[in-house]
Amino acid sequence: MYCEDRQENIISFIEGELNINEQIELFKHLANCHDCQSFINIMIRMREIQKREKITYPVEIDENILSHISRISHHSITKSHHTMKQDNKRKSHITLSIPSAIISAAAAIIIGFLLSGIFYRGSEKYETAHYPQQYPQPTAVIFYYSMPPLEVTGTGMVQINKNINKQNY
């Protein structure tokens, strides 16, 4: 039996992650496998012990961590405030009214369309110039070189019909 795979399913079952079909398969396996029965008993007992176990930490740990965090955040706040003042001195504010911003955005879009149309038409003329007129333009061809690996497993037998007429081939 594949008990290593079943042990992963047992852990998923204990954590509540198995669907109904997987649970049914697991229970069928557990009915026959004593190793997995003992494994699930151990895992359930261990989970119960973890729930009962309470770890208490000293108060000093919280104070040390919080004081360290406050020092780091205070240092970063003062540093960011200092750099913000320097950045404000370097920046120049550009003000633009809403109608002029809309007009400049529309102009940029129109210029973009015009330039793309010029480049597109120019490339079309260049491509057709190399082919004689009597031949059709080439079409796109997609080559598929390989197929993903295929694994066939099982014990099925292939039956051959012996009544096939060899003249049909």
Instruction: Specify the structural class.
Output: mainly alpha
Distance between the termini: 46 Å
SSE order: HHHHH
Give helix % range: 55-70%
Shape descriptor: flat
Residue share in β-strands: under 5%
Number of β-strand runs: 0
Question: Please, how many helices?
Answer: 5
Rounded to an integer in angstroms, the radius of gyration calculated over CA atoms is 37 Å
Main pleated-sheet profile: none
Average pLDDT taken over every residue: 72
Show unreliable segments: none
Quick overview:
The chain has helices at residues 3-14, 20-32, 34-52, 59-90, 98-129. The protein has 169 residues and is mainly alpha-helical.
Question: How do the helices and strands line up, and which of them pair or pack?
Answer:
Elements: H1 3-14, H2 20-32, H3 34-52, H4 59-90, H5 98-129
Architecture overview:
The longest helix has 32 residues. The two termini are 46 Å apart. Among the domains are: 50 residues, no CATH class; 27 residues. With 169 residues, it is mainly alpha-helical. The model has no long low-confidence stretch (mean pLDDT 72). α1 packs across α2 and α1 runs parallel beside α3. 64% of the residues lie in helices and 0% in strands.
